[in-house]
Amino acid sequence: MEDSPILEVSGLSVEFDGRVVLENVSFKVYKGEVMAIVGPNGAGKSTIFRALLDLIPYQGKVSWGEKIKIGYVPQKLALERDMPLTVMEFLKLKDSSGSNIHKVLKRVGIHEHIQDIPVGVISGGELQRVLIAWALLGNPNVLLFDEPTSGIDLGGEETIYNLLHKLQGSDELTILLISHDLNVVYQYADNVLCLNKQIVCFGQPNSVLDPKGLAELYGGEAKFFRHDHERNHHHGN
Q: Do residues 38 and 193 lie in contact, with contact meaning Cβ atoms separated by under 8 Å?
């Protein structure tokens, strides 16, 4: 792992109409890491992503490394079921190259017959893969995922996270991931940012997501039963 971070955030603060949404948030992300962001509703998790993408005004400093290309997968994309665009036509809005599209569809495990189906009628899991394919067009080296399995059944969740792990391993991608599922954080994340407008904890999940940290993060109401499984990847630190 490289010594210099590919992302350094210092003193990030965001206010909307005088209301503090984020306050003095600082962290670093290194190449090849998976960093998860967890916290209760209204903690500012999606706001961090909007600040990192320079979509909103903020105070503080966000420093990306050189030659960083970012892919972003939103929490959800509301599509009308009668939307006439097929999967292929939708992806061509971003990249007109059919060969590039075929490559990313293969990488995300989408069968070619789906490319001719309207995006409004494919399943939630298939749509999520299409959105990941969209994010991969242009060959980013950083991916931002906002609740990538929102609205997908448990079997689909497992498949999507396995896909992200596979992409991260084969492409040396750096992934920032907002997730509500702490089991996923334990299994896939190298570091976790615990957020409730301010940083509550930051570090390796096994170290910081203990009962005390979870109680502080979720106000003492959190009850969490961890699945027994081993992490299936390792990074040097």
A: yes
Task: Please tell me the predicted confidence (pLDDT) of residue 184.
Answer: 79
Say if residues 192 and 205 touch (Cβ distance below 8 Å). Answer: yes
DSSP string, 23-79: EEEEEEE-TT-EEEEE-STTSSHHHHHHHHTT-S--EEEEEE-TT--EEEE-S----
Domains and CATH numbers, the chain: 1-68+182-237 (3.40.50.300)
Half-sphere exposure of residue 26: CA atoms within 13 angstroms, side-chain side: 5
Structure tokens at 93: 């809005």
Rounded to the nearest 5°, which phi and psi values hold at 146? -100, 100
What would the pLDDT profile of 32-78 be if each residue is shown by its tens digit? 899 999 998 889 999 999 999 999 999 999 999 988 999 998 766 66
Q: Rounded distance, CA 41 to CA 222, Å?
A: 13
- Averaged pLDDT for residues 161-167: 74
42 compared with 23, residue with greater pLDDT: 23
pLDDT at 225: 45
Cβ-in-10-Å burial (0-12, 13-18, 19+) of 81 comes to: exposed
Least confident of 6-15, 73-82, 228-237: 228-237
Do residues 186 and 203 touch, judged by C-beta distance below 8 A? Answer: no
> Where would I find the beta strands (DSSP E) of the chain?
7-16, 19-29, 34-38, 59-64, 70-73, 142-146, 174-178, 191-196, 198-203
Provide long-range contacts, Cβ within 8 A and 24+ apart, for 168-171: 168/32, 168/34, 169/233, 171/141
Q: Say if CB 8 and CB 28 are below 8 A apart.
A: yes
